[in-house]
Amino acid sequence: MATITLGGNPIHTSGELPKNNTKAPNFELVATDLSTVSMADFAGSKLILNIFPSIDTNTCATSTRKFNEKASGLANTKVLCIARDLPFAMKRFCGAEGLDDVMPLSDFKTGQFGKDYGLEMIDGKLSGLHSRAVVVIDEAGNVVYTEQVAEIADEPNYEAALAAL
């Protein structure tokens, strides 16, 4: 389990992020059209998993915008923005913001993604939601970079994530 903070108050996650140089855990998430997507749907692509508590918070919205901007020109790379939000909220936000270079995905049905990736918050005011984290996966499905953001209100290290590609 990892210890992170919200406003300086300690919060714990359900586990640890996947280790570098290991196969990324499979996942099934819900797209904005309510279809189910899995890791297999992205076979052969580089992935940036931008994971956060809710699209309706300032830092989460900012990270979605920044990854949309920074990754838009990257070849064979997809940015998946993952939260427990309903797909409708994520679709509304990305549509209103004109964000076409990220794919919003929801873990609302089971929360299994958060458990499998070790980032479900298990106590504190946001218990049950995902912590803020970034996981980069190469074309072969291997984890090449992870960041568990120590303070939920802080942005991730975009440059380090992009450099891992």
Task: Supply database-style keywords.
alpha/beta; 5-stranded mixed beta sheet; 9 strands
Structural description of this entry:
The protein is α/β, with parallel strands linked by helices and 165 residues long. The chain has four helices and nine strands; from the N terminus they run E-E-E-E-E-H-E-H-E-H-E-E-H. The strands form three sheets. The chain has a five-stranded mixed beta sheet. The chain has a two-stranded antiparallel sheet with strand order 1-2. A two-stranded antiparallel sheet has the order 3-4. The longest helix is centred in the middle third of the chain and has 14 residues. It is globular, with a radius of gyration of 14 Å. The mean pLDDT is 89.
Percent in strands: 25-35%
Element-by-element helix/strand order? EEEEEHEHEHEEH
Number of strands: 9
Largest sheet: 5 strands, mixed
The chain-level mean pLDDT equals 89
Oligomeric state: single chain
Unreliably modeled segments: none
Secondary-structure-derived class: alpha/beta
Number of helices: 4
Question: Globular, elongated, flat, extended or rod-shaped: what is the shape?
Answer: globular
Strand order of the largest sheet: 7-6-5-8-9
Task: Write down the Rg.
Answer: 14 Å
Helical percent range? 10-25%
Calculate the terminal CA-CA distance, rounded to whole Å: 27 Å
List the helices and strands and how they pair.
Layout: E1 3-6, E2 9-12, E3 28-30, E4 36-38, E5 46-51, H1 58-71, E6 77-83, H2 87-97, E7 103-106, H3 112-116, E8 133-137, E9 143-148, H4 158-163
Parallel strand pairs: 5-6, 6-7
Antiparallel strand pairs: 1-2, 3-4, 5-8, 8-9
